[in-house]
Amino acid sequence: MKLNIYVISHPIIKILHHNTYENNIIKSAEIQNESKIMLFLIYEILRKLIDINNVYIHKLNYIQKLSIMNSQQKNYIITNIINNYNLLKEVYDTFPHTHISHYNANDNDNYIIDTIKNINDQTNIIIIEKFLVEDQIINLLKYIKNDIKIKEKQITIACITCTHQILEKISQYYKEINLYTTHIIYNN
Predict the structure, then answer these.
(1) Nearest Cα to 161, choosing from 29, 17, 36, 43?
(2) What's the number of domains the chain is made of?
(3) pTM of this prediction?
(4) Could you list the residue range(s) of the whole structural domain that residue 60 is in?
(5) Environment class of residue 59 by beta-carbon count within 10 Å: exposed (0-12), middle (13-18) or buried (19+)?
(6) Which of 68, 181, 49, 29 is nearest to 124 (CA)?
(7) What angle do helix axes 134-146 and 164-173 make, rounded to 10 degrees?
(8) SS3 state of residue 133
(9) In Å, how far are 49, 82, 176 from 122, measured between CA atoms?
(10) How large is the average pLDDT for residues 127-139?
């Protein structure tokens, strides 16, 4: 398997994951925990992807430093907004230059409803799911690569949990994709 897999094991994520999936908690607390976990995952992904340029403004008595994002860079989050709305609550406000696009896994002719514009070598696609479903993720990756013409190295998957089998399946077709998760389930 040559897929680039990052299992985020920050202590806060471990506590949130344990409290969400291994304790019987009320649904609203589970939704809040999942949202926080996804926020940590997106933060970790964008920390490596965002290209920051420093601009120095010379004033009379001092130099002011501004950090701005490369205007050519676009970050698209692709997810089923209907199923994953709770995961996206803070993402849009927290991360600049990040656009959220909806995809419908049940409609192969109209996979991504929102159009992805101005694609270049600095465009990043981040797929967000709570749990990866094999056929859906493979079909979505195929669509992004073949129809939208995004290179594998520009695609990142963020999921809270996934199985080893799904990772094996993805790695059979896609070698340069990065995948971030908090937990991998190993089934025998």
Answers:
(1) 17
(2) 1
(3) 0.84
(4) 4-185
(5) exposed
(6) 49
(7) 20
(8) coil
(9) 9, 28, 16
(10) 87
